[in-house]
Amino acid sequence: MLSSVYSSVAAAHGYMANPPSRAYACAKGLNLSADCGAAQYEPQSVGETVKGFPAAGPADGKLASGGNNAFAQLDVQAANRWYKTKVASGAIDFGWHYAAGHNTTRWEYFITRSDWNPNLPLTRAAFDPGPFCTVQWNATPPFDKPEGSSGPGKELHHCQLPADRRGDHVIYAIWTVDNTANAFYNVVDVTIGDGGEEPGPQWDEVGRVQPQRELSIGDQVTARAFVAGVENPGFSTTLKIASAEQGQPANWSYALAKQINLTQTQVKAGLRDSQGEIMPNLGSNTLFAKPASGISSFELAYDLKPIDEAYLQIQGLKPDYPLSEGKATLDFQVLASQQLDVRASLYDSEHKQVGTTGQAVDAGTTSLQLNVQGTAGKHLLKLIGTSKQGRTVLQDEREVQLSAADSGGYDFSFPEEIGQYRAGTRVLQVKNGKVYECQPFPYEGFCRQYSPTANGFEPGVGSDWRTAWIER
């Protein structure tokens, strides 16, 4: 019976280090275009389940994850998704690294059939029925250390690849533990060549095109070549996006690789096929250069066409919102020129965030509500809008007042319309969020005496404010 049982808590045990397992390649940053999930942080925890493959072990379609949903991203199978280690046909050495080396029964190595389909989920039917290599052990740890220790294995496993395998394949490496019911299953992605140098000039791997962003018509992407750390325009290639379809990540990567191969003689882009030819790929592409070119690396540079008349505005915001038990709800509208992911945040006078909310908005006007918790006083409402592709970021800000619930209302925000202040006039002091009432005759005249440099009667602030005002 096939098992999909797994521990809900990942344990640290071991992984194939050379050539790297799919998870370890993620940890090394080699699978930049793939979503590796949690496996990139703990490759040593991937693939633990019951032993006994192919009769037992992980279920078909879950061979890479070992049936553990925490590592389900590894089960996604496509010809151009995963980094592949180049190996020569014939003899091959396998090396493991152990985070906790257990007493071991054996290691077994299976390989995909000659006619396997790399775009279908990995199943037992994709592999030869038996291992092409088995290394027996003596129920002791895989190194000269106590069980549970960490480090590389004591020995490399010297194996022989099937003579008829060339091109892209998956090796299924199984480490069977002796004193538990489990084994560890690692998927290893490889490209098998004929060995030795390919006919003609040698090509060195000098970079990769990892298509991760969507581009728009008129955008440009450049593969920038560097020789001894200095950009060399002669070896660089630029692609201008001609259509929305070409702007899709996999498509522009393919088009750029194709243009490189058409226009450059010292540089090639693509993936090696079963004959060793470098062909453009829909998805990630490797950049190769002749050693004589001196090219040491490549970088991708984007020249994004600006979007005309993009705007984002706060509308309908009241100047004041009353607090109730320290809480308030700000209701307002967002006016946008395009679809945006909007984040609205409110900050107090000490720049502390007292509320935030997010919402996707369409072009036009959208109503928003923001629940906040704070104290009375002047605040800043900050609005940030980001387009789907991340190429447009817009901002807008507005000042707003939070007032105490028992303020009883006010006529003006001090010092607005100061010439109209009379006995009984109520004003909001924006500096502290409090309301003050002008004193009756003969003191009401002091309520109108104010300037930024002579503020002795400024409500709640000036040295003599009580002469003119009553706090409400």
CATH architecture of the largest domain: Distorted Sandwich
CATH fold descriptor of the largest domain:
Coagulation Factor XIII, Chain A, domain 1
Biggest sheet overview: 6 strands, mixed
Tell me the helix content: under 10%
Instruction: Give the overall pLDDT as a whole number.
Output: 88
CATH superfamily of the largest domain: chitin-binding protein cbp21
Beta-strand segment tally: 30
Structural class: mainly beta
- Would you state the CATH class of the largest domain? Mainly Beta
Alpha plus pi helix count: 3
Beta-strand residue percentage? 35-45%
Whole-number count of domains: 4
What are the key terms here?
472 residues; mainly beta; Coagulation Factor XIII, Chain A, domain 1; Alpha-Beta Plaits; Immunoglobulin-like; 6-stranded mixed β-sheet; 5-stranded mixed β-sheet; 3 helices; 5% helix; 39% strand; disordered N terminus
Q: Topology, pairings included?
A:
Layout: E1 14-18, H1 22-27, E2 48-50, E3 85-88, E4 91-98, E5 104-111, E6 133-140, E7 151-152, E8 157-160, E9 167-177, E10 182-193, E11 204-209, E12 220-227, E13 230-231, E14 237-240, H2 249-263, E15 267-272, E16 278-279, E17 285-289, E18 295-303, E19 312-315, E20 320-322, E21 327-336, E22 340-347, E23 353-361, E24 364-373, E25 377-386, E26 393-403, E27 412-413, E28 426-429, E29 434-438, H3 465-468, E30 469-471
